[in-house]
Design a protein that fits this description.
With 206 residues, the protein is an alpha+beta fold. Helices cover 14% and strands 19% of the residues. Strands 1-2-3 form a 3-stranded mixed beta sheet, with no helix packed on it. Strands 4-5-6 form a 3-stranded antiparallel beta sheet, with no helix packed on it. Strands 7-9-8 form a 3-stranded antiparallel beta sheet, with no helix packed on it. The longest helix is centred in the first third of the chain and has 19 residues, at 2-20. The termini are far apart. Residues 15-26 and 118-123 have low confidence and may be disordered.
Length: 206
Amino acid sequence: MYRLSRITAKVAVALTVFVSVTVMAQTNNVGIGTTTPDPTAILEVANPYNPILGVRSKGMLIPYLNQLQRSQMEAAYNDTIANGLLTYDPENGNFWYYKYDSPVPATAPFGDWYSLTTTIQAQNSNVPVGGIIMWSGTIASIPSGWALCNGANGTPDLTDKFIISVASAAENPGTAPVNGFFVDVEPGSVVAPDRRFFKLAYIMKL
């Protein structure tokens, strides 16, 4: 009877561990605690509670990916990276995670890579929401998550405009044109070096 009880207890422990920690391999990716790991994750941990062990005394090694490899991963998965996906970059010693934009874009890419060591530093974009840069590409090729500064989508209308800095903290930038300033443009040849202006588009991070 005692021997049978010991065997029963061992079977119960084995079944509990098997049920609470389920490993499922699908095309080189693994799920722990889930049978449907995300296809872009080499490892997804659902972290189920183990009532037998009652403690969590193990660490986890995160896959190594440098900046080039993260870019190659985006290309391989057509920019459909899992929200919250975590990697470690051995070249700069930082953890990097993929975060979806808010609101989430209708088409990929849905977000960007961010370093856990900073608040705004990102792999493909160091520009926070509301930041404005000059864009040399075509209007049709403006990246997802950015908008042309033409007065739509919450952007200021910077069409055919120059930009100057606000004079004080009391001013609210980007709300209205500045009065009393003008640029005197002299006629010249279209041949360099007389051609002194180059047209670019202003785009804003959404």
